[in-house]
Sequence to fold (146 residues):
Amino acid sequence: TTDTKHAYLINTTTEKTTFQNNSYLVVKEPMTWDEAKQYAESLGGHLVTIRDEVENRFVVDLAREKGVLNSFWMGLTDEEKEGEFVWITGEPLTNTNWNGGTHEPTNSGVGGEEDYAEIGYHTAYSWNDTYRADSQPSVVEFDGAP
Fold:
């Protein structure tokens, strides 16, 4: 038998959108960061990585267009060394868009260390660090157009 969560996720895999030679899939089903990372990898992709402001705006606008109106996961973490955020793909971190109003990343809060990045928590396009156990949608990126 297939549970409802996985049946829904299987149905979303056909909604890829191509941009700058990569494809993107918005996964509206809320998951923890670890679940979202594992799911993205099971599809042959990874949690989205952002190379520049143009891609940042595209990804947020795509998520909003697909019905994700709040924050969502991306593949950025400082779980290995506090304060040193890296992309899960190993590509260089050349552009950031941390929310300036609260001076993110803060690693603050009562839920433990905030080691995982999300987009859209403070403002639509800004980044925030948060807890791995938070549950939210994600965007999966597939390198190379389909």
